[in-house]
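During the second year of the project, the team shifted from modelling isolated chains to modelling whole assemblies. The rationale, set out in the original proposal, was that interfaces cannot be judged from single-chain predictions alone. As a representative example for this report, we include one of the complexes processed in the last quarter. Its constituent sequences, exactly as entered into the pipeline, are reproduced here:
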Amino acid sequence: MRDLILRNRAFAGALAMFLVLFLGYHALHPRGFSTAVFIQNANESVAIAFVAMAQTIPVLMGGLDLSVGAVMTLANCIASHLVTGSPVQMVLGMIVTLACGTAFGLMNGLIVVYGRIQPIIATLATGAIAIGLALIIRPSPGGEIDGDLNWAVTNAVFDFAETYGLADDGNAAWLQPFVNIPVPLIILLVIGFGVWIPFKRTVTGRTVYAIGSAESAAFMSGLPVRRAKIAAFTLAGFFASCGGLYLAIQTSSGNADVSQAGAYTLNSIAAVVLGGSSLLGGIGGAIGSLVGAGILRVISFYFRILSIDPLLQPLIEGLVLLVAVSLGALRTLRVKNRLELFR
Amino acid sequence: MTPFARLSPENRPIAIAAIFVVVIVLFGTVYTLSTQGTAPMLSPGYLLQQLQIGSFLGICAAGMMVVILLGHIDLSVPWTLTAAAMMATTVGGPWAIPTGLAVGLLVGLLNGFGVAYLRIPSMIFTLGVDSVLRGLMVAHTGGFAPQTTASPLMRFLAADRIAGIPVAIFVWAGVSLVIAGILTRTGLGKAIYATGAKEGAAYLSGIRTRGVIVAAFVISALCASTAGVLLAGYSAKAYQGMGNAFLLPAIAAVVLGGTHILGGRGRYAGTLVGVILIVFLNSVLSIMQMPEAFRQIIYGVVIVGMLLVYGREGGSRT
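Output from the structure prediction step:
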């Protein structure tokens, strides 16, 4: 156990920081530790958490995906047209939405690998394309999402079961231990662990880490460098579109907001760093970014319960971000050979 | 790519980008000739006006280029620009411009300290500085557009003309001369290229790389604040979010001009051509009254397409 924590020091630190912030929030909240507040928190964190997981994979490779916010927005706009009608149509709509985002990520990967353009600049350009497409699909905010679906996935397990008449309308005895868990949290954890952990254990996933540590060494060792790069960006597109799909269901609408897309991209980088991944690549993981996104969100929740002047909020958010990333600088004090500071 | 194959890796993108600028102007002219029967894109007055608007982007891109040559990036440009403009209009009078530049100097020193001494990746540190500056300005102005106005000198520098040529273009030319001079004729310039190519090697060769990084971030922030002071003079006031439209175009201009995003390679002439390319591309798209959606798509396609034409990068697995 002690070994496990030492090996994942950054992740453990992030988790501890999140738990302290989160428990502190609920302790201070007048209706803290209640299902309602918990559900609300979970709902507001899903989109950024997915986008942060999307950002993690290119970052692990030593790259960066500046299009994640834009792909999320694109998926959001597609979903706002398709996720309505009969259950079959809705499921098809969700699949099409996720497929579009994944295909966009695949395109990013192909441009980076076969066009040999640096990821940061290639995704900067494709991000503009994604925003353009989103604006064509939804020139003004709006759209329609099935009301039952919206209710079912943005509430607790009980409401989900009741809406769809599962498990005796949510009254079945075996379901009782779980009834108060927010559905968004389950979606996040199932997709996060269900996709990321198996991917990480494949050769392709290992290669993503290897590329981040030393690309030439990975290539010399015969690892599938190209395949890993394409897979990393494709998976980033998938996670980003999950975020967009959830945002569409949650808000019952699509909105091609350029500045919102930019904010999600930048926050995703911050969440990845807070979650213990290194921007130089090779260290970290998507689960850490999940926690990092949680930290970012909880900080903004605090403004609701503490009577802080709203005009000071952006300043405090910025300072917290700056201080949190500066904590990572403490490692420079441990470095004995100054040459190790330069990559 | 036969005619370009003989050019060096630094010059080939510049030549291709210059040709593309000509293509854009010709295309715009053909379009206006066929729809309205006039050719505004070829009139000197129109071109000068476009360059006047482009000078703000040009100055931002000049500073951004110095940082990108180091393999770093400065994401704090938008709010450095806005903060300089807001503080300059707040102070007003003869001290307006020095105040704006002082803001830039402080931000540059802070960025440089974080990146060079604390060794925080520039991507995340400058992002944090950007949000802190945004917070400071929101607290300073109360979240509204400030009521203060630009000083007469700021208005002169940004909006007036000398002998028919906008003064802003002279300012841009002045900044360009200084940056190009630093990069090609001073020890600092050589040190920037060396540090960007391989920091460890530069350090072992006796270059004080941390000082070089701080200097580069100071140059970038000074350029951003100059652009902010000018832009405030051009619009006669400062406003929230006035810098947001400059970050990504500035990076795009630098990269389209052939500067390598990982540092160490690039010429200032390229950045100049890159800025002109983006300014003219924008003006053709607005002449064609292209909706925002298609402008974004064209913008992205042009960047990817140009970089593909520049030739695939050789050293992806060095």
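Residues 41-324 of chain A form one domain. Chain A touches chain B through 57 residues (CB under 8 Å).
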